[in-house]
Design goal:
Length: 278
């Protein structure tokens, strides 16, 4: 099931998108995704709208907490980081977690603010994002996926100089307009997290990132279980699983994004998240 947050005739609601992504059926009385986290059955209403007639918003426009992100969590990105930093063996021995502040998620088709007055090196990162659906505390890897509400796409937009100068990633990844999410959340029954689903990014139609989600260093089960040992993961928590090689800083010379560029992040089985830099 694909669950989208939409605006139609001035009203915001959550709806079920059909398999071909052509229509959406609003769920009666459901104004945001949080209302569904404890639902045993998600039942759409009788009204069916063409997807082209609604405004697609980020699935969770205002996350209740910072997004939990993973750094250097694909083997090929670890090698790419080696070449950029001049270090050797960037493969982490333990998962690298950091947080990303999101005042408002950027909608599919929405604008990424370049912050060109302070950001000379704007970068993109296509990532698989996991949405937690029920309170998770001290869960095992074997039961971790039982706590997943669904999966979506997140573009972890980054200001590389700011990220480097401050010797940590929070500020350089948390500027306003730096977190496009979408186009919808796909429930676990329709997305196999253990598959070799492709994860890609394109800038102005040029393929930049091209990998598969099975190449994660630390998988979803591991991260949910590990995080839950010391912190309670609440419904609505978003965990962004890191990005593969092919980010702008990995090219020589680097390929930064600029105002007017269009970036698309694609995950097979979920969909495509496209945004334009302003």
């Amino acid at each position: 099931m694909k669950l989208a947050t939409i605006r139609y005739q001035g009203e915001i609601c959550v709806g079920v998108v059909d398999a071909e992504a052509k229509t959406v059926a609003p769920i009666p009385g459901c104004v945001d995704m949080h209302a569904l986290f404890d639902c045993m059955d998600i039942i759409p209403g009788d009204r069916v709208l063409p997807l082209s007639d609604v405004e697609l918003l980020a699935p969770i426009p205002h996350p209740a907490q910072d997004v939990i992100c993973l750094g250097i969590n694909y083997y090929d990105h670890a090698a790419e980081s080696d070449s950029v930093t001049g270090k050797s063996d960037n493969v982490p021995k333990a998962a690298i977690y950091f947080s990303k502040r999101v005042n408002e998620s950027v909608a599919p088709g929405g604008a990424i603010d370049s912050h060109s007055d302070i950001v000379p090196d704007l970068d993109y990162e296509a990532e698989l994002a996991v949405v937690i659906g029920k309170e998770a505390c001290k869960v095992s890897e074997a039961e971790a996926l039982d706590y997943v509400f669904g999966y979506t796409i997140l573009n972890d937009v980054s200001a590389r100089t700011i990220q480097t100068v401050h010797s940590q990633w929070y500020f350089g990844k948390s500027l306003d307009g730096f977190t496009p999410i979408g186009p919808w959340i796909v429930t676990p029954d329709e997305f196999d997290i253990n598959s070799k689903a492709k994860i890609q990014s394109f800038v102005n139609g040029e393929l930049r990132q091209n990998s598969t989600i099975d190449l994660l260093i630390f998988n979803v089960q591991h991260c949910i279980s590990e995080l839950s040992q010391g912190m309670t993961l609440l419904p609505g928590t978003i965990i962004s699983m890191g990005t593969p090689a092919g980010v702008g800083m990995g090219f020589n010379p680097p390929k930064w994004m600029h105002p007017g560029d269009t970036v698309s992040c694609v995950i097979e089985g979920i969909g495509e998240l496209t945004n334009t830099v302003k």
